[in-house]
């Protein structure tokens, strides 16, 4: 059965959640990272509009969540998500497993972690191949790697110098499990993802290159974090009334007057480069690409 993140990751997440609770008991929630200093105004040319065909609109009983899909990173999984959304598979499906300081999981019509779609399981897409033409905006260059963004998705990749060393002129890259990132749940086998997916409430780098990433939340992360936390084993919902995805659609299928439009700070803009520098200065040695929050604006 396609159920959830593997037991080891779940157990670690529960420990992380317990640590967070301990921190709260000791004197409140841990402080947020330092805020970047004010920068220049974002102008009209600094925005990038998310294509309607790659925008997943998730209406929940707590509010709306908007996810930018990344077919360049995980084409098979994005195709599956769109197929299921367009067939109404996700409508009225519960968030059956939610762990604070970790993630919120859904996509199981049975609501118990054992259900999936009638379609075959998917081949894992833990990494992707990047060539010189693929848009990539660096934020840091640790030894032997580059870390930055592909559109709104935080990614890590091999350095450009490795292009000349590979047979296809491409290098490996992979998404990073920062807050808001959308990943596919699976069983123990790598090629067992099907319909269940999860949205990150916080960063969790232990999942990198172990679960396929197919997108990132570009609106409604506060909604994801407001979903009620599971009260059963490993974050499973034991209560009878879990939060639900009421309706899930691809934005391109929504009539244009009703369709949400999402704009994200363009990562090829000078304002993005300023934001990176502000965040690195604020965080100092503790800097992570997950500290960078790309500004967004939503209409409709």
Explain what this protein looks like in three dimensions.
The protein is built from four helices and 17 strands. With 300 residues, the protein is an alpha+beta fold. Strands 4-15-2-3-14-12-13-6-5 form a nine-stranded antiparallel sheet. A hairpin with a 2-residue loop joins strand 2 and strand 3 (63-69). The radius of gyration is 19 Å and the shape is globular. The N and C termini lie far apart (38 Å).
Strand content: 25-35%
- Low-pLDDT runs of 5+ residues are 14-38
> Which sequence of SSEs, written as H and E, runs from N to C?
HEEEHEEEEEEEEEEEHEEHE
Distance from N terminus to C terminus (CA atoms, Å) equals 38 Å
Spell out the key features of this protein.
300 residues; single chain; 26% strand; 18% helix; nine-stranded antiparallel β-sheet; five-stranded antiparallel β-sheet; 4 helices
């Amino acid at each position: 059965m396609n159920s959830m993140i593997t037991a080891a990751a779940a157990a670690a997440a529960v420990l992380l959640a317990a640590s967070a609770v301990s921190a709260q008991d000791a004197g409140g929630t841990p402080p947020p990272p330092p805020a970047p200093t004010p920068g220049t105004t974002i102008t009209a040319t600094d925005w990038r509009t998310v294509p309607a065909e790659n925008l997943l609109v998730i209406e929940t009983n707590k509010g709306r969540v908007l996810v930018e899909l990344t077919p360049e990173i995980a084409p098979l999984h994005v195709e599956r998500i769109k197929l299921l959304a367009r067939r109404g598979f996700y409508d009225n499906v519960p968030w059956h497993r939610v762990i604070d300081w970790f993630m919120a999981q859904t996509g199981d019509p049975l609501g118990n972690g054992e259900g999936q779609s009638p379609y075959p399981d998917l081949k894992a897409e833990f990494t992707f191949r990047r060539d010189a033409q693929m848009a990539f905006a660096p934020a840091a260059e640790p030894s032997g790697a580059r870390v930055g963004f592909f559109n709104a998705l935080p990614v890590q990749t091999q350095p450009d110098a490795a292009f000349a060393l590979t047979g296809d002129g491409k290098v490996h890259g992979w998404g990073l499990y920062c807050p808001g990132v959308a990943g596919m749940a699976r069983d123990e086998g790598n090629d067992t993802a099907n319909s269940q997916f999860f949205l990150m409430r916080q960063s969790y780098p232990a999942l990198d290159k172990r679960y396929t990433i197919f997108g990132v939340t570009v609106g409604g992360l506060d909604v994801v974090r407001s979903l009620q936390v599971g009260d059963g084993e490993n974050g499973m919902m034991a209560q009878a009334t879990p939060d639900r995805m009421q309706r899930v659609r691809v934005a391109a299928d929504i009539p244009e007057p009703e369709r949400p439009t999402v704009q994200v700070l363009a990562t090829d803009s000078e304002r993005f480069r300023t934001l990176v520098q502000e965040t690195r200065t604020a965080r100092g040695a503790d800097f992570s690409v997950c500290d960078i929050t790309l500004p967004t604006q939503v209409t409709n």
